[in-house]
Amino acid sequence: MEEKEISRAVISRLPRYYRYLGELNDEGVERISSQELSEMMKVTASQIRQDLNNFGGFGQQGYGYNVRHLYDEIGSILGLDKKHNLILIGAGNLGQALANYVNFEKRGFIIKGIFDRNEDIHGREIRGIRVQPMENIEQFMKENDVDIAVLTIPKTGAVKIAEQLASYGIRGIWNFAHIDLNLPENIKVENVHLSESLMKLSYKMNASGKEK
């Protein structure tokens, strides 16, 4: 059977469902209706049902959703039931902030290695992980089961490094470099532009001000 293609909009909402369901589970809530979830998340109940129906539905009419079951199922869809080993490339301020964010490990994302071009910080430890020269990446990937590379480097050189990572067998790149990466389809890339997010906030504030 041909797999149904899920829209990017639906996929982008899954982590938010996961976060809210995790909070509900921690609070001991056993079940919730699409309407109750709608009121919490400010997404229509029909949208929630449509989103979840892409993956089987999970709810029962008159009962709603079992919070723990739905939380686990969405976690599985997101691949959070597996461990993912990461390497971090770029140990500047952003790289160090990401390395120190402990919630990654709680979600199964384990930073195994940190690399940087700056010789002055080679050997420095960030959360117990020693910063290594860039030249060590290929050998490190041969010796460790690395799934994902996190790029927190300037855009100059980012394309070349991404292409090298592709040749080393990386499966995914979380890219904070200020340039979109275009790699073979088998390598999944998530481009993150922090300034664009800030500009979206600026737009919302500006549009709201015009409404007054």
What does it look like?
With 212 residues, the chain is an alpha/beta fold. It has two domains: 8-77, Orthogonal Bundle (Arc Repressor Mutant, subunit A); 84-195, 3-Layer(aba) Sandwich (Rossmann fold), CATH 3.40.50.720. 44% of the residues lie in helices and 17% in strands. It is built from nine helices and nine strands. The strands form two sheets. It has a seven-stranded mixed β-sheet, with helices on both faces. Helix 1 (8-26) crosses helix 4 (67-77) and helix 2 (34-41) packs across helix 3. The radius of gyration is 20 Å and the shape is globular.
Based on the coordinates given, report the CATH architecture of the largest domain: 3-Layer(aba) Sandwich
The number of helical segments is: 9
Q: Stretches where pLDDT falls below 50 for ≥5 residues?
A: none
Radius of gyration: 20 Å
Order of helices and strands: HEHHEHEHHEEEHEHEEH
* CATH homology group of the largest domain: NAD(P)-binding Rossmann-like Domain
Give the overall pLDDT as a whole number: 90
How far apart are the first and last residues' alpha carbons, in Å? 53 Å
Beta-strand segment tally:
9
What would the principal axes of the Cα set say about the shape?
globular
**Structural class label:** alpha/beta
Strand order in space, largest sheet = 5-6-4-3-7-8-9
CATH class of the largest domain: Alpha Beta
Main beta sheet: 7 strands, mixed
Beta content: 15-25%
Total number of domains: 2
